[in-house]
Amino acid sequence: MSRSFSSRSTRLMLFPAVLTAVGIYAQGPGRGAPPPPEIRPRNLIANATPVRTCESLTSVTLPDTTIDSAAIDPSDGSCRVTATVTHPPSGDKVKIFIGIPMKDWNGRFEGTGGGGFSGGSATGVRQPLSIGYAAGATDTGHTGGSGSFALDSTGHLDWQLIRDNAYLGIHEMTTTGKALTQAIYNTAPREAYFMGCSTGGRQALSEVQRYPGDYNGVVAGAPATNWTKLHIEQMWGNLTMMLANNYVPQCKFEAAVNAAVAACDKIDGVQDGVIEDPLRCNFDPKELIGKNTDCGVITEADAAVIRAIWDGPKRRDGSFLWYGLTRGASFAGLSGTGGTPVTGMPNNITLEWWKYFLNQNPQWDWHTLTREAYENYWTQSVEEFSAVIATDNPDLSAFRDHGGKVILWHGLADQLIYPQGTMDYYKRVQQQMGGGDKTSAFARLYLAPGVGHCGGGAGPQPGGQLDALVHWVEDGKAPETLEATKRDQTGKVVRTRPMCQYPLVAKYKGTGSTDEAANFTCSTGF
């Protein structure tokens, strides 16, 4: 069977099941009550009926693909298929998991992705199946969430597995999923959407940039776009503390977060425990010197560490390398410390990038880092790996010309992937694609104040991205705003806010409850 299908392709979502599988890079703190279920879209193909059994899919022939199994899942009646794709002569094995509704198919296909080094898992197809999508997931060539797959049995870089994880696995999942869906229904999916967060967001942009015909629309949340830069930046906090011989306890960091929020909460004219625009917050950590905390008095040395992490990594000559933690975001994600005596605890995904990719040595000790070496690693990471795994190419003309639509969103209190990197990328897209108006005709960015990595935090949580994307692609209705909702532990809505199209911000009209989105307007400033 040919792998050529309608250009109307897939969407990738980050579902709760995927959150569990992929670990910290798809998690956010303090999620509270789960959001309401997604809305099932209208069916695009009237009276769609399978033309063959699920089990017969084992006889479908696809290039370099083995259909390992095909069986009905008794929990939901869907057809579940496991396939293995390889790329001769490498001998790699990319596992692909496809779920296809055997009734009430909505005419669309959805791909799901992962987080950190995990490409995804079979559980990712459950949620899209529940609202009528055919869906796909993949392990992108390796099981688990470790970066150790990057090294072959001789200890050298396994570039085939790196490519599989970086971009090939998701593309193979997409084409395989479409082929099997078409085999069941004798018609290709009419529309396809990809919605992911963190690594899933990077995977979404990889598809847009490398395979513009795979998807009609993507949602990329907190995307790890600048992968080869952000993984070097993510060692900055622990490097700073090590070189200063001052590992700051977490309760001192928490005091800095709380003080910054208290100082900058009213930037937008509304006191709600959220810094609406942290880039306008200039709270100086020197004001904390002498403050008592549960883990001791904050010292001048502590304030210097806090300032360095907020400022972001710099070269020895003081020039810019990358962005820093936004004020109001947690230090714990990347500047982890703990133990007695207090010591550094780098993020494990970050550490594995340094061990397996940069040093090709599982025993590499991060304590051997120097400032000079840090800068050299920065150059190595960018030069050696950007071509395969970074997704910061601003030329989206092929996807635009395909008719595709992009929704980017990022939490402004993201503790793992700092939102300035996404803003930087979007600005470069605007420059490349002819300006703000021409870009917003097919790609839009929305920022979520007070929201952590892919969710969580004090701010109202983003929602409705997929519905907005579907309306944009299928009805031509571009989303002026996205919805953001804060719920209590019972699921009751206690606050709503509009998420405005960047660079606009939600400005309070001056009357009415500050917990109701209707009392805010999108403005160029507060």
What do these coordinates show?
It is a single chain. The chain has 526 residues and is of the alpha/beta class. It folds into two domains: 10-225 and 391-523, Rossmann fold (3-Layer(aba) Sandwich); 231-387, no CATH class. 30% of the residues lie in helices and 17% in strands. The protein contains 14 helices and 19 strands. A six-stranded mixed sheet has the order 1-5-6-4-3-2. A four-stranded parallel sheet has the order 7-8-13-14, with helices on both faces. It is globular and about 75 Å long. The termini are far apart. 51% of the residues are buried.
User: Any idea what the radius of gyration is?
Assistant: 23 Å
- Structural class, by secondary structure, is alpha/beta
Count of folded domains = 2
Q: What is the mean predicted local confidence, pLDDT?
A: 93
CATH class of the largest domain: Alpha Beta
Indicate the multimeric state: single chain
CATH superfamily of the largest domain: Alpha/Beta hydrolase fold, catalytic domain
What portion of residues belong to β-strands? 15-25%
Q: Give the termini distance in whole angstroms.
A: 57 Å
DSSP summary: helix tally: 14
Low-confidence stretches: 1-32
Strands side by side in the biggest sheet: 1-5-6-4-3-2
Query: Residue share in helices?
Result: 25-40%
Please tally the β strands and state the result: 19
Let me know the largest β-sheet.
Answer: 6 strands, mixed
Overall geometry comes to globular
CATH topology of the largest domain: Rossmann fold
CATH architectural grouping of the largest domain:
3-Layer(aba) Sandwich
